[in-house]
Amino acid sequence: MTIRYPNGQAFVPVNKTKNNQKRGLSYSNRGMTLEDDINETNEYYLACGKAVIHKKPTPIQIVSVDYPKRSAAVIKEAYFKLQSTTDYNGVYRGRYIDFEAKETKNKTSFPLKNFHEHQITHMKAVLKQNGICFVLLRFSTTDEIFFLKANSLFTYWDEQEKGGRKSIPKADIEQLGNLIPISLNPRIDYLQIIDQVYFDS
Question: Exposed, middle or buried: residue 153 (CB in 10 Å: 0-12, 13-18, 19+)?
Fold first, then answer.
């Protein structure tokens, strides 16, 4: 099946197994991607009744379908209908939650090119409605994950738009954000940070 972006470019899925072999498995991440870790964390939150947070599905327009059997249909070609906004949303303690998750192999800074203008626009709109909005940033070489409030991201994004630097120094992320320790259950306890930052608990 071929899935294409709105500009017609073919979508190439990441080979997780190949990537895991390249970077090697460690005890801390056990070969899991950031998305895997967050999905597992959200399942834990849901099972414990702490929060309802899910990964957003991306709308797809089906163009070509093959029917090898009457009882089966195979999608041969499809397009992403819309640009995605952020990765995750849901509700926690009566507040709307919306966040994006990104990874980088850089050791000293986080490239702003990992974000897109429509994502920034969406996050700003969420904050205007008093939602809780943030980003989870993973430095894959050190397997460190930081919680960074959206407003802090906007500061660097807006400076970039005016010709400023195109990345956020890791030292700034360490100062402005919160390091989230990786544990067993939940894997990435970002609700603990939300409690500290937004609920003073």
Answer: buried
**Measured between alpha carbons, how far is 124 from 105 in angstroms, rounded to an integer?**
27
**pLDDT tens-place string over residues 26-74:** 334 444 689 999 999 999 999 999 999 999 866 666 667 777 776 777 7
* Each residue's pLDDT tens digit, 134-168: 999 999 999 999 999 999 999 999 999 899 999 99
Cα atoms found within 13 Å of the Cα of residue 146, Cβ hemisphere only? 24
CA distance 126 to 144: 26
pTM of the full predicted structure?
0.75
25-57+85-198 is a CATH 1.20.120.1770 domain: no
Query: Among positive and negative, which fits the CA dihedral 158, 88, 188, 45?
Result: positive
The amino acid that residue 174 corresponds to is E
Helix (H) or strand (E) run with residue 166 in it: none
Report how far apart, in Å, the C-alpha atoms of 23 and of each of 32, 83, 140 are. Answer: 11, 29, 9
User: What are the beta bridge partners of residue 65?
Assistant: 75
Domain residue ranges of the chain, discontinuous segments joined by +: 25-57+85-198
